[in-house]
Amino acid sequence: MARSIHALDSFFYSSMGIYAFQSQCEMLAELGYDGITVSAWGGTPYTDLSLLPGVPAAHGLKVEALYLVLHEGRNDTQLRRIIETVEGVELIELAVQTSINGSASILRFIESILPIAERRGLRIALYPHLHHVTQTTTQVVQICEYFNHPRLGASFNAYHWYGSQEGHLEKRLEAMKPWLMQVVTSGSALSQLGWGGIATMEPVDRGEMDNFAVIAALDRIGYTGSIGVLGWDYGGDIYLKLQRCLTTLRDIDQRLERRPAWADFALK
Amino acid sequence: MNLPLHHMDFIFQTRLGTYPLAAQCEMLAETGYQGLTMSAWSKDLASIPLVKANWGLDVGAIYLIYREGLESFVTNIFESVEGCTTIELALHSGDDVTDLDRRMLERVLPICERRGIHIALYPHARYGMQTTAQAVALCEEFNHPNLSIVFNGYHWYAMEEKALEQRLDAVWPWLHQVNIAGTRRSPLGWGGLATIEPLDEGEMDNFVLLGALERRGFDGRVGVLGWESMGGDVYGNLRRSSVAFRSMEQRLAAHPEWSLINELPY
């Protein structure tokens, strides 16, 4: 089973700066990653989005998703404009960080982008994020159920699931299954010194959260899409961190194939 | 690049004890290092002249700290060292660089001239001289051919001096050598500031630092910092740092442009 594995471009941000997009793609291609998720943040991307359509031909990488952050009442128009115009990517991952006018307005924003998604052949995956308005898988599943729209789904981010201490992995994944469009993971340990005072973000071979068990649980619900590596906050010599993560995820895949029984235990 | 890679001997001084010199040198040679920096408190200073013949390693420098009251100790090291011509000197006589530091330099620089020794000022977080800016100011003040600076990536990062390109430009006329470490800002790290880890760990991007040095034509030696907080298997940590360093060098040779990163806009 050769599962697709991609990296989030947040890998390439550190306290020392941001790697050029060309370098990002060259490193990922050289290491054997299948794709990259590009961030446009709240509407001011550090990557020139007009480069996205050229990525597959130039680097053999798929642009897995474009990551957007909604500050409802502040950047609705900017995000809508990006969704209207972006080329070279089919999946939009949408985090909802803040809101001026409350949940009805957030829902109105989502409603307003669904016709654009239909017309342009895009999918929107809601992205639960700690310290954001939508921070649990439960919250984003509720929004998916409310709209019940084929173009609207959810991302499962193992880091944010773990950090939120929602628990009940099997149950949460079952609830997400009808809507699941993307998966992202990270190494992580609950710690006040970690991101947001909640949990560390580390390469996937580190931390307390067992990525072997997480990926086995994703296999059990039949997830066959790409797995993304978070990358934020690791910094360091990026190339070697990327290499470690890819090696670990490939190793987990091979172990699951060779020894499926090792993942056959009741999760808390 | 293929620069000579050294390691500071602190890595061999753990809470459990200090490895004997023979074990230190055998490990360094086996894990791909070309030399070491010996701390002034080492019991092995007298053996420095034997290191090259026995293990093929250079003792690139002695690491020495000046504090008030240590004048005789410091002077004695300068007068007596054999087999090593560089002294990395940290200055900690007060909260800032003080006249005591200046008097110390005035006292040892003539010894340096006479004995062919170079001083590489070593900015050290939480010491009187803790930034590259302070070290550059001292070099400008003395303007002495035997006085230079070791750029220590760890302390630059821990002190949050930032502006890497500008700091390297300022240090460049005086730059003698470079020290690096894997590091992440953390209250659990050294001095409550930043961790000291093998080169494949931490948040600081040493690939970017090495690229910036390469662009300036740096061809000196690079020393790796190690300290108790690194913990664990010393040999394993030495090997990890050496593998990571050579990997960074090879990547820099193949893709020098990768190390040209954009400044953070925030």
Explain the overall architecture.
The complex is a heterodimer of chains A (268) and B (266). In chain A, helix 5 (137-147) links the parallel strand 7 (123-126) and strand 8. The longest helix of chain A has 21 residues, at 238-258. Chain A has helices at residues 21-31, 55-59, 76-85, 103-120, 137-147, 158-164, 169-176, 211-220, 238-258, and strands at 5-8, 13-14, 17-18, 35-41, 62-72, 91-99, 123-126, 152-157, 180-185, 190-195, 227-229. By secondary structure, chain A is an alpha/beta fold. The radius of gyration of chain A is 18 Å and the shape is globular. In chain A, helix 3 (76-85) packs parallel to helix 4 (103-120) and helix 8 (211-220) crosses helix 9 (238-258). Chain A has one domain (5-263): Alpha-Beta Barrel (TIM Barrel). Chain A has 9 helices and 11 strands. Chain B has one domain: Divalent-metal-dependent TIM barrel enzymes (TIM Barrel). Chain B is 38% helix and 20% strand. Chain B contains 9 helices and 11 strands. In chain B, a hairpin with a 2-residue loop joins strand 2 (13-14) and strand 3 (17-18). In chain B, helix 3 (71-80) packs parallel to helix 4 and helix 8 (206-215) packs across helix 9 (234-254).
Flag low-confidence runs of chain B: none
CA-CA gap between termini of chain A: 27 Å
**Approximate helicity band of chain A:** 25-40%
CATH architecture of chain B: Alpha-Beta Barrel
Q: What fraction strand of chain A?
A: 15-25%
Please state the structural category of chain A. Answer: alpha/beta
Helicity of chain B, as a percent range = 25-40%
**Chain pair sharing the greatest interface:** A-B, 24 and 30 residues
CATH level-3 fold name of chain A = TIM Barrel
Strand content of chain B: 15-25%
Number of strands of chain B: 11
Q: Give the C-level CATH assignment of chain A.
A: Alpha Beta
Using the CA coordinates, give the radius of gyration of chain A. Answer: 18 Å
CATH level 4 superfamily of chain B: Divalent-metal-dependent TIM barrel enzymes
What is the residue-mean pLDDT of chain A, rounded to a whole number?
97
